Amino acid sequence: MSKVMKCGIEECVHNNNMECRADGIEVRSSTNNKKCSQSEHTCCDTFAPRV
Fold first, then answer.
1. For residue 31, what pLDDT is reported?
2. What confidence tier does 11 reach under pLDDT thresholds 50, 70, 90?
3. In terms of Cα–Cα distance, which of 2, 13, 10 is closest to 46?
4. Which among 4, 14, 18, 27 could bridge 22 via Cys, Cβ 3.0 to 4.6 Å?
5. For the residues of 1-51, what is the DSSP string, one character each?
6. For the segment 22-49, what is each residue's pLDDT rounded down to a tens digit?
7. Alpha carbon distance, N-terminus to C-terminus of the chain
8. For residues 3 and 35, what is the distance between their CA atoms, to the nearest angstrom?
9. What pTM, to 2 d.p., does this model score?
10. How many Å apart are CA 36 and CA 5, to the nearest integer?
11. How far are the Cα atoms of 15, 20, 23, 30, 34 from residue 5, in angstroms, in the given order?
């Protein structure tokens, strides 16, 4: 499995010092047409907010 090299989402419970500590991540399209041509068209579906 690939390692997430950097995570800039400080509000995510899996983020520890800019490193993702989730066992795995799920990335999905953030566009309505489901076709991605840029990284901005994707999002991490594993995100969980810190409480």
1. 87
2. very high
3. 13
4. 14
5. -PPP-----TTBTTEETTEE--S---EEE-STT---SSGGGEEETT--B--
6. 999 999 999 887 788 898 999 999 999 9
7. 28
8. 24
9. 0.77
10. 21
11. 11, 8, 14, 21, 25
Contact predicate 15/44, CB 8 Å: no
pLDDT of residue 1: 62
Residue pointed to by tokens 């399209």: 29
Higher-scoring residue by pLDDT: 1, 34: 34
What is d(CA 12, CA 46) in angstroms, rounded to the nearest whole number?
9
pLDDT of residue 12: 96
Residue with tokens 């990284």, as numbered in its chain: 39
| Residue in this structure with the two tokens 């995570």, named with its chain if needed | 7
